[in-house]
Structure formats: C-alpha cells, structure tokens
Design a protein that fits this description.
alpha+beta; rod-shaped; 3 helices; 12% strand; three-stranded antiparallel sheet; single chain
Length: 113
C-alpha cells in the first residue's frame, strides 16, 4: 500500500471543502506552531488498522475528531519473503527429472520381467 495515496484520500474525505496549495510558498513560524499543536493532539489519538495485520497501515485521529485537524495514515514496509534463486529452481527441476527417469526405468524393468 502507498501511504501517501492513503493520506491524500483521508485528507479529502475528512476535509472535503479545504484545499491545500504546495505552490503558495507562504509557510511561516506561526503555521508551524499550529501544526505542532495538531501533532501534540495526536499523541493521545485513536489507532485504527485500515486492513489486515500484515499491511501495517494505521490511521491516527484526535479524540475530538476536529475536522480542522488532519487524520494521518502511517505505514511501514512489510517484511519481504525469500524468493528462490535460479540455481534453486534448476536443482528442483533436475530433481524432478531424475525422479521421473527413475520411475520410468523401474516401470520398464517390471514390464520386461
């Protein structure tokens, strides 16, 4: 799952009438202080899983569910499972071929005898 996409979707649903422009270039110290206040409110937030336990993507919302405060999506990567190397696949195929050859020879010996 892409956390940024989930984040954008949550922002749009939670704040349908608000627009954010990243091109405005008007961030100042008071806005950062406001955001710091929002983050402090999320320390005691509700943590809800968006999918099963393997996805590890959670939302964080403040207790008051204030629409002025953004709901955040947080995720971290899932552990990757091992993928067999080509040499392992070659050994597996060779083993099946050897087992098939042995069974074929055994069947011929029984039919001939």
């Amino acid at each position: 799952m892409r956390t940024a996409a989930i984040q954008a979707a949550i922002w749009q649903v939670a704040n349908p009438n608000r627009t954010i422009s990243v091109l405005s270039n008007n961030l100042n110290a008071s806005q950062f202080a406001t955001y710091q206040g929002y983050f402090n409110a999320y320390k005691t937030g509700n943590y809800t899983s968006l999918a099963d336990a393997n996805d590890r993507v959670y939302t964080i919302t403040d207790q008051a569910r204030n629409p002025q405060h953004q709901t955040f999506a947080i995720g971290w990567p899932i552990e990757n499972t091992a993928v067999p190397e080509p040499g392992t696949w070659a050994l597996l195929i060779a083993g099946f071929g050897a087992a098939g050859t042995a069974l074929r020879r055994q069947r011929r010996a029984v039919l001939a005898g």
